[in-house]
Design goal:
- There is one protein chain.
- By secondary structure, the protein is an alpha+beta fold.
- The protein has 8 helices and 4 strands, in the order H-E-H-E-E-E-H-H-H-H-H-H.
- The chain is 65% helix and 7% strand.
- A hairpin with a 5-residue loop joins strand 3 and strand 4.
Amino acid sequence: MNTIKIFILMFLMTLLFIFVGDLLGGTGGMIYALVVAFLMNFFMYWFSSSLVLKMYGAKIVDESSAPELYNLIKEVAIQANLPMPKVAIIPQEAPNAFATGRNHKNSVVAVTEGIMRILSKEELKGVIAHEFAHIKNYDMLIGTIAATFAAAISILPRLFLFFGGGRDRDERNPLGPIFALVAMIVLPIVALLIRMAISRAGEYRADETGAKFIKKPEALASALAKLHQASQRIPLEGNEATAHMFIVNPFTAKSLLNLFSTHPPIEERIKKLRQLQV
C-alpha cells in the first residue's frame, strides 16, 4: 500500500514541479525543475542514509561491541518479521532514536547514548519497535522523497533568477521575476507544510504499528513521555532539517517554530497509545 503512496507522492510532486517551472520560466523552467528533482532524488535515495549517519557521528556496532542493544533490536526484528538492520550508536547525551535506509534490507536503527541511559529495557524496546514500524511502512523513503522535493521546490525560484528562465525568450513568462520573488517566500512554507503533514501521519502510524509488534503500548507511551521531557533540557546537536527522522522532535528546546513541528503533540501520541487494544 505504501508503495502506491510513494508513486502517487512522486507523481504529484513532479506535477507541482512542472507547474512551478513553467510558471517561472516556460519550457526551460520545466527542464530545470525536472533535472533538479531527478538529481536530488537519485542522490537522496542512494546516499541519504550514510549522509545522516555521518552527520551525527553514528558508529555501526555489532553484537560483540554492544550486546544488549544488538540483541534487543534482533528480538524486535523477529517480532516485526523484518530483516536484521544495521545498528548504530550516536555519541550524544540527548535521548533519541531514528531509522534510516532505502528499504527493508538496507536499513539502520540508530540510538543515542543518552536514550540507553534514561529508558528501561521495555521502554527502549518500545522505541525500537516504533523505528521498525517506520522501516515496515517505508516511512524513511517517503520522508526522504518529501524532504528532497521540499528542498528542490524551495530553490526553484533561485534557479530561475540565476539562469534567467526559459532558453527561448519567446517562451519566458514576462511576470516570471515577480512570480519568482513571491515563490521564494511562499514555496518554502508550502514545502514545510507538506513535510509536516507527511511526518505527523507517519508518527501516529509508527506508534500504533510498533506497539502492536511488542504488544505493549504502555512501554512506548512511557518512553515518549520521558523523551519529551528530556528533549526540553538536552537538545540534540545537529541540523533541524533532520528533525522529522527522530522519534521525538530533538530541537524543541531551541526551535522558534514549534507551531510547524514535524511531530504531532506528544500528549496526543500518548493518549492514542493508551487507547490501543493489542
